[in-house]
């Protein structure tokens, strides 16, 4: 039996979050949590959450992982575990997006356009009918009118506007690097990175440290 994937879109940050469940056991996994709507869904369906997963350290919104962990932890058992590189493979986070959006920027801490190209190549080596669920969608900037949670490997290989089959690594790295250099930083990047690297917890001193803009002084 295939797992059931519930897709929940958070329009303020154009973020996808997911609840994946095995109906035979009612156990569920939550991926990239941001909102209380996840709790409502889990309660309505009677699911038992045994994992909270983050696909990456989000740079433009705050995770609700620790908040949900505190509410969902049973018998003192925490839900922390680092995943290996290839599990689960079909939730790609902020690496590639839907075909008409393309790829994610690579200029955040630890980002690298060459690494992103290699990640996309790895995703495209999956069976063509595999669904790739993405971390964001931005339909107002595309011909589509509603957010789309996934596309297939075959669709990505044929239609991804940045990474379709035939795109060379050198061309992608050059274009992505030049493009990223012209983009403004996300509005919440400084808050998000400090909180999300700690799975939703504040820094130890309880303070968010923000850079001071002294331009023009």
From TrEMBL:
InterPro entries reported for this sequence: Mito_Persulfide_Diox, RibonucZ/Hydroxyglut_hydro
Protein known as: Metallo-beta-lactamase domain-containing protein
Secretion signal, residue range per the UniProt entry: none
Highest taxon in the source lineage: Eukaryota
PANTHER family in UniProt: METALLO-BETA-LACTAMASE SUPERFAMILY PROTEIN, PERSULFIDE DIOXYGENASE ETHE1
GO molecular function annotations of the record: sulfur dioxygenase activity
Chain segments annotated as coiled-coil in the UniProt record: none
GO biological process: glutathione metabolic process; hydrogen sulfide metabolic process
């Amino acid at each position: 039996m295939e797992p059931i994937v519930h897709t929940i879109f958070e329009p303020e940050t154009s973020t996808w979050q997911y609840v994946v469940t095995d109906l035979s056991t009612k156990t569920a996994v939550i991926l990239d949590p941001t909102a209380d709507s996840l709790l409502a869904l889990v309660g309505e369906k009677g699911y038992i959450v045994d994992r909270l997963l983050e696909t990456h350290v989000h740079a433009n919104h705050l995770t609700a992982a620790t908040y949900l962990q505190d509410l969902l932890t049973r018998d003192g058992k925490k839900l922390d575990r680092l995943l290996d590189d290839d599990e689960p493979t079909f939730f790609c986070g902020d690496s590639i997006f839907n075909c008409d959006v393309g790829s994610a920027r690579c200029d955040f801490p630890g980002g690298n356009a060459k690494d992103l190209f290699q990640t996309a190549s790895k995703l495209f080596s999956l069976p063509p009918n595999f669904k790739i669920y993405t971390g964001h969608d931005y339909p107002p900037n595309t011909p589509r009118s509603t957010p789309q949670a996934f596309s297939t490997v075959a669709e990505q290989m044929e239609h991804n506007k940045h990474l379709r089959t035939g795109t060379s690594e050198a061309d992608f790295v050059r274009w992505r690097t030049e493009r990223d250099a012209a983009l403004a930083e996300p509005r919440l990047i400084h808050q998000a990175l400090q909180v999300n690297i700690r799975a939703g917890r504040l820094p130890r001193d309880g303070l968010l440290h923000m850079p001071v803009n002294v331009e023009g002084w």
